[in-house]
Amino acid sequence: MNLGRLRALGVDQQVALLFLILFGLLVFVSVAALLHALRDDAAANGEAARRFRRDLRAVWVGSLLFWAAWISGPVGATLFFGLFSFLALREFITLQHTRRSDHRSLILAFFFVLPIQYVIVANRHFDLFTVFIPVYVFFAIPVVSAMAGDPHRFLERNAKIQWGIVVCVYGLSHAPALLLLEFKGYEGRGAFLLFFLVVVAAVAQVVQELASRWLRRRPVARQISRSFSWRSWLMGALAAGAVGLLLYWITPFKAGQAGVIAVVAAGCGTLGEFVMKALKRDAGVHHWGNRSGVTGAVGLLDRVAPLCFAAPVFFHSVRWYFKLTP
Amino acid sequence: MSAADLMGFVLALLARLITGAQGHWKGCPPTAEQRIYFANHQSHFDWVLIWAALPKDLRLNTRPIAARDYWTATPLKHWLTREVFNAVYVARTRTDDQDPLEPLADALERGDSLVIFPEGTRSNAGDPMPFKSGLYHLAEQFPQVQLVPAWVDNVQRVMPKGEVVPVPILCTVTFGAPLHLGPGEDKRDFLARARAAVLALRPRIA
Known about the structure:
Chain A is an all-alpha fold. Chain A is built from 13 helices and no strands.
């Protein structure tokens, strides 16, 4: 590929090309999957094939939303991710045992904290954006909760709500923040940065999954995940680093920087997924898909969890390293 | 689109945004047969949730039961129940010369489906209360109508008593397999069986 010619294209054309490649690949994979499904044997309709088709559908939905978020500009992107945050938090809270006295705190979380955080992102107040939830909301939630006058399991209930807010609102709001982050000489290319993050996180996830099947190492924490081992995690992160290195030309980074930052972000994403697995075990759910029959499990949280953990680390390390002030 | 249609659309959208209103059809498909859905009753939201969980074409002729004195008290309440939900009004105070089930029987004769809460009132915690006998009498009078049990889950967390603003929490409505009144089945046995059918649909964490 002639990189010089690519660089000569306008920003809009580059973004359009990016989406063209993305959707082209998706169409290709989908057609292949369809042809595979037409075959009438066990492999075509087994559990693995079904899971693959389900994940493929999720990738389609994700890509379409990503595209819609991009063409609708900063306001649209913020609204899209805000809605995602809302749905993810709804799912998270459903699986926790809240009490009647948590009602006001939950209203605060859903109808005040969440919209304010996204309004701050949309206006690019990145300093306030960084501290709004860890400082101000951290203080406000227990105050409202104490006002309800129920000391029963007070710390536990508050911790659950705070945790949900940090993961589902604070973490996920870094995705539109990446779209809006301004690099010198890189204006208007925020979509590449988010795309870069999503791709490296996905690569790490897939490679880790394959590696754990292939290596069959002893799991680090059998009670939580039967497949997670340090070696497969490392392979996932390194694969993400390699892909990041290859993709450096769509980012404002130099090649080496892109590789390192991809390893860090993708490693955090897969570790975050591991943490979510522990959480699921705690809530007594194995799959967060609709099949479990447990109220509250729709599976959205599963899909966005790696992003919730990877995006803040990615965003803040980039911002710190390149000294990007507002 | 009339104002009532618009209101219905907005309410269904809100119910879905706040609770998800997922319908799990475990015992029967959502088809346009004449049915009486009977469910547990924990909140005023129950009806809206069941209604939002139904497919759109089933909503049109599936009707709730509303207490006439309460739901016709203000023009807004009256409009909401009459135009948007097409409710069947019943009198709460019993008069000697009238069968309280008569409006329900009229609606069933016209071919409409009904949603009833056989506990009669909202139960707050734990298991549903014993069922009132209305369900039995309707089953006796209309043997061709399917009796579909349903369990509405989680709705009491959305809006506890005394609060005004609902909190977004996912709820499900699980529909079970249709029941029929057995030949010569005792009233008490049937009501216990119907209650057990509703309870059996409660989701359990594995």
